[in-house]
Known about the structure:
The protein is an alpha/beta fold. The protein has one domain. Helix content is 41%, strand content 20%. The protein has ten helices and nine strands. The protein is globular and about 65 Å long. The two termini are 32 Å apart.
Amino acid sequence: MELSINDFDFLDSFEHLGSHVLDQNGKNNLDLFILKINANEFDYISLRENLLDPLIDFSLSRKVKEKYKGKPGTLSAKARDKFIKYINNKGELGELLLYCFLETHLHAPKLLSKLELKTSTSHYVNGADGVHFLKLKDGSYQLIFGESKTIAGLTAAITDAFKSIYQFKNCINEKGDKKSGLPYEKGLISDHLEKETFSVEEKQFIEKIIYPGRDRDFDVDDAFGIFVGYEITINGEDKKLSNKEFRKKIKTQIEKEIKSSFGHVIKKIEEYDLCGHNFYIYILPFTDLDKTRSLIQKEISQ
């Protein structure tokens, strides 16, 4: 099954500062990206440009894209209509970025994005931010449920992400009352297969991934993809550095901040009894988080 994103230009906006395995069993993987730097500032213009096409892939089903193939203007308009008013939903940009990282970096094809299910700009769908699948080297598969958080504090964002995953897995809300969770998500995938251009064989394969059966000859485990966007503070004096020195100092600062969070990630996995799952974590720093997020969402949805 092919990825829903046609090219990997999205990754051109970033520098990958490294992959980190956080546990001895290699189950928890964290990738650190930073936006390319131009004149001692993050290049948000490049990011906005490289999100325009993925926005269509994220917002619309393969079936809708096939229907309007050759009509890029119509496709773009339909995608923007789906994209919730940027000022009212702080999480929307994080969902899009997580989708892009899972497809272009992890190579995990999308099965469902919640934006496809939103029928109006004032309607939100609870649960995972999206669902992808990944084939492992040993022939087994993972269903990857997405969770994104864009919160100024890095520690707070990580805490919120794992708390949401715990509630989602256990089908409970903030108060401990029952709510939809993993079983509901899997049902959504099955119910919306007809909205995609999957072949009969692909649909049967997806059903096998979702539901265990006697004829399934491979293992499937539930996993989670996490995107964390947090705010960093750049010293005014640092902006006066040469471009080379600025890049060096900012990368060092970010790497130090992220590595200091590794222990907190493991702590939350253990605290919420999530050790059986694999986690694919993407962390990205922003300057002026609220302002930047709103500006990017506004410009890609106009």
